[in-house]
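Researcher: Please translate sequence to structure tokens.
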Amino acid sequence: MTESRRSYDEGCIAAHALDLIGDRWALLVVRELMLGPRRFGAIREGLPGISANVLTRRLEDLEAGGIVVREQLPDPVRVQLYRLTDAGLGLWPVIRALCRWGVGMPGHDPRLFISPTALMLSMRALCARSRAGVHQVAMVLGPERFVIRTAPGDFRVERSTAEAALRFEGGTNAMAAAIYGPIPLAQTAQGLIGFDGDLGAGQAFVDLFALRAEP
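Model: Translation complete:
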């Protein structure tokens, strides 16, 4: 069955926005690109429920809407990447609001698949910035690596292989349980995840996150 793109045919600005990003999977494709350009295969790895055909259509729709652009890396790499435009990056407040609204709604099942990018963005959305100290944290989630930097009032995350004083490593769902769960880091680091660094500083970092939005 061929999926056709539809419009709400309304002059409402919200309806216009949904014409651009309201299709199934569209915002999740944007989510996977929020921390930088990615190959088609990498996007699909972060969205295991999507078919290749649907992902192709969503990328084409987002490109037509000025939200995504394609880039070809030069020789000898010759890899095609997709990246967000400024308009696409401007959707971060929408994703953040969905994270902060969703934590208050019943029915969330943290045992379901969580992509590394999704976890990093949930932490970005829910970090208690007002209590943040100065931390530099390496997060190793399978083949994906990130560096998180916090400071009073600030949280930043990027894909990076840089080393850091605090290093967390593990599967994404296990990491989510360690970051958001009530069990102290001293216990979760004894099998659920790997941790290197000062345990007190690591616990202070973990304490910045809870499955609730800071007022």
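Researcher: Any highlights?
Model: The longest helix spans residues 52-64.
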